[in-house]
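Saturday, quiet lab. Running sequence design on the structure tokens for the scaffold JK sent over.
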């Protein structure tokens, strides 16, 4: 029996198609080949207000514009997140998306002081696919993949999403067609097995 998979396209440009979009499309095709059910969230199409205070983060209402995205995340057994590395991290719009959806009462609940928070997204797994201009090994080893580690540990795993696997795709601007095709095939294969 196939998995319920939600693809989160985190590229903030809603006017043009990028390699992140092609990767997500191939992943979705692989899911269909593997008998999985897929829903998609295109972050660039959402009206996502930025949170500016602790009060908004902890008690503010969830914007109506992202209620469908929340339902798709709750429905999913596996999340696949695609985004380009900008200034060493995820684009601001994607971070705003996570801040809206991965907050108290939605993704976790505070308990009494000194105890762990209740993880409301427990039982889900994830894959994070990051594209970048630099070689992937430079980001992983020289920069210690700091922003990716933060996403995995401080957002996804904190809310119960584990295991979280990663795919780093570097040298995007310098890839030839053969290399691009190889990466697209890789995504299709991962989609087929629901990973």
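Result came back. Writing it out in full:
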């Amino acid at each position: 029996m196939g998995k319920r998979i939600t693809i989160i396209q985190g590229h903030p440009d809603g006017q043009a198609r990028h390699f992140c979009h092609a990767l997500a499309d191939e992943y979705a095709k692989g899911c269909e080949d593997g008998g999985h059910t897929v829903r998609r969230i295109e972050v660039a199409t959402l009206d996502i207000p930025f949170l500016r205070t602790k009060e908004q983060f902890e008690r503010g209402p969830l914007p109506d514009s992202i209620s469908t995205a929340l339902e798709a995340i709750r429905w999913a057994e596996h999340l696949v997140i695609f985004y380009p590395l900008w200034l060493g991290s995820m684009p601001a719009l994607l971070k705003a998306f996570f801040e809206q959806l991965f907050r108290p009462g939605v993704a976790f609940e505070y308990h009494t002081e000194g105890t762990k928070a209740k993880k409301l997204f427990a039982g889900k797994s994830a894959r994070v696919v990051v594209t970048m201009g630099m070689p992937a090994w430079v980001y992983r080893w020289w920069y210690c993949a700091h922003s990716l580690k933060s996403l995995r540990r401080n957002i996804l795993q904190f809310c119960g999403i584990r295991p979280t696997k990663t795919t780093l795709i570097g040298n995007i601007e310098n890839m030839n067609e053969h290399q691009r095709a190889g990466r697209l095939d890789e995504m299709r294969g991962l989609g087929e097995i629901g990973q």
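Notes for JK: The mean pLDDT is 93. The first strand starts at residue 4 and ends at 9. Ask whether to fix the surface positions before the next round.
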